[in-house]
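Deliverable D5.2: sample structural annotation.
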Amino acid sequence: MRAYRSLVGQRGVPRLVVAATVTRLATPVLNLSLLLAVVAATGSYATAGLVLTGFSVALAVCTPVIGRLLDRLHPRPVLLALLAVHLPAYALIVGAMLRHAPPAVLVGGAVVLGASAPPAAPLVRSTWSAIVPGEHLGTAFALDAVLTEVTVVAAMPVVAGLVALASPLSAVLAAGACTLVGALMLLTIPDLGSHGRDGDQRHDGGGRGGGGVLGPLAHGQVRVLLGIAACDMTAFGCMFVGISAVAAHAGESGMSGVLLGVYSLGALVSALAYGSRRRDARPRRQLAVLHAVSVAFLLTTSLTSALLVAGALLLAVGLVSGPRDTLHQLVLGDAAPIRQRTEAFAWMSTFMWIGNGAGTALAGHLVTWADGRHHTSFLAAAVASGLATLLSLLLRRATERGEPAQDAPPREDPVAPGARPGQRSTVDG
């Protein structure tokens, strides 16, 4: 764990880690608690579904727009402006549920809530490059992936505990408190939203926040990486439904949470292990190999109905996904124009939301068509991972055609994962 001790010793990192943890806990807690709170207030799952859809769509659409503002303007006034809208939106939707307001009011409040949500995850990811030297970026992004996984897993018991002790509305308020505390902590980070420690102007897009209307989407490397993100989350959405189906088919519906926990455990352990060492191998090549291995495990999972075997295979899929997700962030952070990095990570969040929604919807139809059998959903997950593999290879071919890339062959010293071209480092054994 020497790499993590060295990372945490960097100025501003402890505060950034705490802020990232608190803010990322808010979204999964809000998703689950908002569903329960609306059902409790209206008695309608249909209304709850509309509220969550309004929130999710507004979040997915507005996050890249806010990301561009964070890149072009100073992050602090943007965050404060967002909080000035976001917190009253919480008050609006909570008050509407207490007063049993019409569904349209609840949906409207959810839309404002999603549209004004501070994009903490993209901002944190873009800030890593400002406060962490290049030789520590691999460890930083590995820790970032672990924090994401931990907060998603922790959200379920947090909501369950708050609902049991108080009410679903208390969990909604807790999500708002997490957002407020985390955003205020981000405001104390000295180099929040800065564009790198070394003033690197590589494929800068023409000045602060340049790049025209498309922003980072004008760069082919970024578009391919966003496509990979969508495929990965489509695969996850299919796998999520498949996990529920395989448990139900075995007559152990309650085991779906255990199987998902096994997958998350694998992702946590592998991401931590991957970030603890430096590697010379080119990240894009590793990305293609890891996706191909995911395809093999998902295909094998589609062939089994035994819970024990499925659990072992899902653990293997998780062990692959930890390093893969870390590499994805590293490569995207390096491929994006320096002054459009926050927007690029914001687009990644949007594509992930889209992919997850598409995956769960597709797998739901496939499982229904297959009379509750899980095989089709895991096959669909394998197809999505296969497409991500092909896109990873396309990314390498684009690199060979001369686009700026993190893993271009070095002239002298090897460039470690996460280090920018021209930034040398030694390989840590």
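Annotation notes: The domain at 11-197 is CATH 1.20.1250.20 (Growth Hormone; Chain: A;). The chain has 14 helices and no strands.
The annotation will be released with the project's public dataset once the embargo ends.
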